[in-house]
Structures are given as C-alpha cells and as structure tokens.
Design goal:
The protein is an alpha/beta fold and 199 residues long. It has a single domain, classed as 3-Layer(aba) Sandwich (Rossmann fold). The chain contains 6 helices and 9 strands; from the N terminus they run ββαβββαβαβαβαβα. The strands form 2 sheets. A 7-stranded mixed β-sheet has the order 1-3-2-6-7-8-9, sandwiched between helices. Strands 4-5 form a two-stranded antiparallel sheet. Helix 3 links the parallel strand 6 and strand 7. The longest helix is centred in the C-terminal third of the chain and has 13 residues. It is globular and about 40 Å long.
C-alpha cells in the first residue's frame, strides 16, 4: 500500500494531535468541516488521512467482506506515533479502523473516539488476552440506519471487557452522520482528558 495521503487542519505547534479517520466511501474532504470544528474548539492539530482503497464515491480502509491489511494498520499507527499526545478518532468504518489500530498497538494513542462505528472481525479474533486501550469515547446516532446503534453498544462493551474503566458512551439525536454536536462532544471529551493542560 502506498503512503496514506493526509490533510492537515491547525498548526503543527499545537500541543495535541487528533487523527480523524473517515468512513467507507468517505474522504478527508468530507470530514473537513468536522476537523475545522474540532481544531477551533480545542487546541489540536487535526490530521485527515485518506483510506487506501477506492470505494464508491470515495475511499475505504478495507473492502467489505475482507480483513484490514496489516500495512493499512501500520500506516495509521505511524500517523499516531510521535512525541505529542495523539487522539485517534474515526467515523463508521474509520471508527472500526481506529479501534483496530489501538487494539493491535497498546499505548498507541492517548484517547480513542469511535463515532457510529463497530467492532471489526479483526478485533474480535485478536488472541493473546486483553488489549490495553486508552480512554474511550463511543458516540452513535440513535436513528442510524447504516450501522445499527447496537454496534455502538457492542463497541463500548468490548472496550469495557478489555479492562478499560474510562469508557464514555452516548447516543445522539441523528442518523449515520457526524453533526456539529458530534464535534462539540468529541472536543469536550478531548478537553476532559487533560492533554491540553501543562504538565
């Protein structure tokens, strides 16, 4: 797989990075409004990578019915790695990708946000015990007709079973979409993590 293309929102001098992964058939451009809202609400630099697989009118992290390629997980991991604290967030398939990356690389991110996501088979099949996860936020539209809200509950339960006591989970009024209220909720949660405060 070629290197993942990345769009940046916010200056490199910001103390915290947030890597925001689009969903299946999405794109960095489709997440730009959310990225700007997040960068404006909290002092973060937002990275918008593009999935490697062409899908419908956009891109995907893996084709439906297949497993995610290890190289794709490695590319996302490389984006998150670095000296600054980084939060990994994703929408729909991007949320599943974020969960997979954190489950496969303990200590990778300072926080994990899954919006309208699901637990991918790759995570369910992980062997070797529990995954060491960071604090987790799970948001799901209560009227989501693409990824049923039960999947949001399954994400939260899976994370709790890993021994992660800091799982925040909520439904919001909406369907399978990232709303301004979603950005506000993610920004508030990032602020509560305490990453933006001087040590």
């Amino acid at each position: 797989m070629a290197a993942v293309d990345v769009h940046l929102v916010g200056g490199a001098e910001r103390p915290v990075r947030l890597v925001l992964l689009h969903g299946h058939g999405g794109s960095p451009e489709a997440m730009l409004e959310a990225a700007v809202a997040l960068a404006d609400a909290v002092d973060v630099q937002v990275l918008l990578p593009r999935g490697p697989q062409a899908a419908e009118d956009g891109w995907a992290w893996w084709p439906p019915g297949t497993a995610c390629e290890p190289q794709t997980v490695a590319s996302v991991r490389d984006l998150v790695s670095g000296p600054r604290p980084t939060v990994l967030a994703g929408f729909s398939q991007g949320g599943a990708m974020a969960l997979l990356a954190c489950a496969r690389a303990p200590g990778l991110a300072a926080g994990l946000a899954v919006v309208c996501g699901f637990v991918p088979d790759d995570v369910v099949d992980l062997s070797g015990g529990r995954a060491a996860l960071p604090p987790v936020l799970v948001l799901h539209g209560e009227d989501d007709e693409v990824v049923d809200p039960m999947h949001g509950r399954m994400v939260a339960r899976w994370c709790e079973r890993q021994g992660q006591g800091r799982v925040t989970s909520a439904l919001y009024a909406g369907g399978h979409d990232w709303l301004p209220e979603t950005s506000a909720a993610v920004a508030g949660w990032v602020d509560e993590l305490g990453l933006l405060r001087p040590a």
